[in-house]
Amino acid sequence: MNEAANLIAARLEETKLAPKVAIVLGSGLGPLVDSIEDAVRFSYADLPGFPPSGVSGHAGELVAGRLSGKPVLVLSGRAHYYEHGNAAAMRPVLETLKSLGIDTLILTNAAGSVREDLAPGSVMLIDDHINYSGLNPLIGEPSDARFVGMTSAYDSGLKQAFEAAALKAGEALPRGVYMWFSGPSFETPAEIRMARVLGADAVGMSTVPEVILARFLGLRIAACSVITNFGAGMTGAELSHQETKDMAPIGGRRLQAILKNLVGEIA
Known about the structure:
Layout: H1 3-15, E1 21-25, E2 37-43, E3 61-67, E4 70-76, H2 81-84, H3 91-99, E5 104-113, E6 123-130, H4 156-169, E7 175-180, H5 189-198, E8 202-204, H6 208-216, E9 220-230, H7 241-266
Parallel strand pairs: 1-4, 1-5, 5-9, 6-7, 7-8
Antiparallel strand pairs: 2-3, 3-4, 5-8, 6-9
Helix pairs in contact: 4-7
């Protein structure tokens, strides 16, 4: 184990927690941690190797406890490529989760829709992704393990479990393709039109690096986007991070209900 894993493991042993599932919360989804019972909190600043998150709406803490009665680790906030210029910024975090025995990773994000029928406030299950940025967190990895297969990056069983959890919560959960732009500037109207032509349903600035790293580490993955806005040029309005923060809690409440059901079944 690395130093961060040792610190977390010591506290987990005290609480008799042995989580197998971890959840990464995107913008506006932080309130989910308020549902964690018997919570044990760790600031990223106190965990060696954990990158600080400099984005408003990301708390920058790891919370261990129980969700729907099941042990879970929740990461409130993530590091983004556009903050550090490092696509592998989350590698130490995911390696720590792997060391702690996590085998299933649930990723969430805030995203922009490129579909007229996927409105702000809705939730989309990520079926696949397009790495439009061209960046890869495994560049420089010396072993042959860097050649990670991505045909089934998003676990089919977990996607089915997500859909069952949404049905139980009475929430719609359409599937879609997520396209990763590096950010931090928003996309142009031309880029949104291109994304639609290439087969994307939503666009965002995160998640894909973590998916690649998690597959490298052998974790099962599922991911969801909370839709916070229509893409540039679709409404004529300018985009802003404030809009993301304002809209994310609306879809976030829907996703929280789904996640509670999901963890109750898979953890």
